[in-house]
Amino acid sequence: MGIFSNLFIYGMHAIPKPIVYVFARRYIAGTELNDGIKVVKGLNRRNVCATLDVLGESVTEEKKTRDALEEYKKALDAIEEEGLDSNISIKPTHFGLGISYELCYENVYELVNYAKRYNNFVRLDIEDSPYIDGTFKLYRELRKKFDNVGTAVQAYIRRVISDLDMLVDYKANVRVCKGLTYPEPRSIAYQTKREVDKIYPYLIEKLLRGGCYVASATHDELMIAETLRVVDILGIKNDGFEFQMLYGVDSELRDILVNMGYKMRIYVPFGREWHAYSMRRFRKNPRMINYVFSTIFTRYEK
Ligand SMILES: Cc1cc2nc3c(=O)[nH]c(=O)nc-3n(C[C@H](O)[C@H](O)[C@H](O)COP(=O)(O)OP(=O)(O)OC[C@H]3O[C@@H](n4cnc5c(N)ncnc54)[C@H](O)[C@@H]3O)c2cc1C
C-alpha cells in the first residue's frame, strides 16, 4: 500500500465528503436513480447486463426500511419502462433485518412480489456474519413462494460449505464471491486469500453439480480461470452461469469476457448513502485509492 492510500485510510473520517466523493465517483453511478439508469443503459449498449443496488445498510428505523422498499420499486419501474437488462440486489439490513426478521420478511416479500409482475429478479446480498442465518432463512421462505429470488455466498466464511446442500436443495440462483469485505474473527472466517482462493472454485463446482445457476462474482483472473475450468469439466453451457463484477473495476477484463461470449453482469450501486459504502470499499481494498488517483485525471468508467 502506498503512503498516500495509507494516509487516506488513516484520516478517512476527517476528509470532507466532497473530496471522498471524487474518489467514490468511480465506483458508484451517482446519487439518484437517473444516474443508475444512465449507467445501466451504457452497459446494455455494450452487451453487458446489470444489477442495480440502492445504497443503504444497517438501518435502525422502520421508516427507512419502507423508504428502501419504495426506492427499489421505483428502480424496478424504471428498468421496465426503459426496457433495460437489469435486475436488483438488496441488502437485508437495508430492509430491516437488524430490527426484526418479520419486518424484513414483510418488506422483501413485497419487493419480490412486485418484481415478479415485471418478470424481474431480486438477489439478497450477503452481509456480515450475524446476518447470514437471517438472510438464508429469508431466502428459503421466499423461495418456497417465488422463483425470482436468489442469494449469495462468501468463500471466506468457514461455515459456507455446510450451507451448500440447502442451496442445492432449492436449486438456488447463487452469487459466489470471495467475501473478505467485512472484518470477521478467525473463528468465523479465513483470514487470508490463500484459503479463500482454494475454496472459491469448490463452491462453484458443488453448486453447478447440484443444478444451481451460478454467478461467479470476481475480478481475480485466477478465479475466472477456475470458474471456466469447472464449467468446462461439467459441460455447463453459457446460459448456465454468468460472471459478475463491480462497477468501476477493471472494465478491460469485463470486455474481454463479454467478447468471448460470456454473460457479464455489473453491480451498479447508486444512492445518497454512497459515503458508508465507499468507506467500506476503500478500507477493504486500499489499492482502489491508488488506482483512482492514477486514473482520476484520465477517464471514468465506460
Ligand atoms: C458483483 C459482485 C457482488 C458482490 N456481492 C457481495 C456480497 O453480497 N457480499 C460480500 O460480502 N461481498 C460481495 N462482493 C465483494 C466480494 O466478496 C470481494 O470482496 C470483492 O469482489 C473482491 O474480491 P475479488 O474476487 O475481486 O478478488 P481480489 O483478490 O480481492 O481481487 C482480484 C483482483 O482485482 C483487483 N481489484 C479489486 N478491486 C479493484 C479495484 N477497485 N481497482 C482495481 N483493481 C481491483 C485486485 O487488485 C486484484 O488484482 C461482491 C463482488 C462482486 C464483484
CATH class: Alpha Beta
Q: What is the CATH architecture descriptor?
A: Alpha-Beta Barrel
- The count of β-strands is 8
In the CATH hierarchy, the third-tier topology is known as TIM Barrel
Main structural class: alpha/beta
Please tell me the total number of domains: 1
Q: Strand-residue fraction?
A: 5-15%
| Ligand kinds | flavin-adenine dinucleotide
Using the CA coordinates, give the radius of gyration. 18 Å
Count, helices: 12
Average pLDDT reading: 92
Largest sheet: 8 strands, parallel, barrel
- Contiguous low-pLDDT stretches (5 residues minimum) are 295-300
- Record the strand order, biggest sheet: 1-2-3-4-5-6-7-8
**N/C terminus separation:** 26 Å
Helix fraction bin: 40-55%
Shape: globular
- What is the succession of H and E elements? HHHEHEHEHEHEHEHEHEHH
Structure description:
With 302 residues, the chain is of the alpha/beta class. The protein has one domain (29-270): TIM Barrel. The chain has helices at 3-10, 17-24, 33-45, 62-82, 101-117, 132-143, 160-169, 193-209, 221-234, 251-259, 274-284, 287-295, and strands at residues 49-54, 86-90, 122-124, 149-154, 173-177, 213-217, 241-246, 264-270. The protein has an 8-stranded parallel beta barrel, surrounded by 7 helices. Helix 4 links the parallel strand 1 and strand 2 (86-90). Helix 2 (17-24) crosses helix 11 (274-284) and helix 8 packs parallel to helix 9 (221-234).
